[in-house]
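Researcher: Hi, I'm a grad student and pretty new to this. My advisor asked me to get structures for two proteins we've been looking at. I'm not sure of the right format, so I'll just paste the first sequence and hope you can take it from there.
Model: That works fine. Here's the first sequence with its structure tokens right after it:
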Amino acid sequence: MVPYQVFGFPVLDKDLDDWADRLKIKPKRSPIIRQDNSWRILRRAVRAKFKCPTTAVRLESGFAAMFFIIGSNETPEDLARTQNMTLVKDIYDLIRTRHPPGWFSLLETDR
């Protein structure tokens, strides 16, 4: 049996810092508040345009990251969505993270 994985974009704290700067979220606020505000705005924009759910994933480094799910290996339809390069590029063009899309495992609490 193949372990369940999701395909999409990890979003790290540095990505959220970049978004906070783009969105002109006040730099005097604490980094966590700026990142949280950035994540909420970014998540809303991606969900509205692409219907991508979000979750948290475990990176190879062992750290966790927020994540936009493009698809998974659970169903043929989900798998086909992961191979839609136009969709992948369009999402990347919106979120502009530092990390390419890839296959990741969910955090233990998510599945």
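Researcher: Oh nice, that was easy. Here's the second one.
Model: And its structure:
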Amino acid sequence: MSQSYCCKAKFCNIPYIETLGQAIDHLRGHHRLSYIVHPSKLGTPDFYGNLWYCCRCDKLKISKDHRSFRSDRAMWDHLNTCHEFDVEDIHTCVCQPWVLPPCE
């Protein structure tokens, strides 16, 4: 079994999320975290090789208005480190999509 994700927010009906990229995209879309951006189709890097952008973070104090990330894991680690309050509803679990409920 591979690692999966569950959203435990009260207003969500998404008990099973298959990949980390889908979990981040779930936060972006369903939780309305518009500062999370993927530049093209989910999982497809842009011209610079980036999969994700965080348009809220100004911790670097550089001329750019965003931080870029080249992997789902790098973006997830950034969200947990800098924006933990926004991702607290997503939990990792070992679950199977055909077994209900998939996560405890």
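Researcher: Is there anything I should tell my advisor about the second?
Model: You could mention this: The chain has a mean pLDDT of 80.
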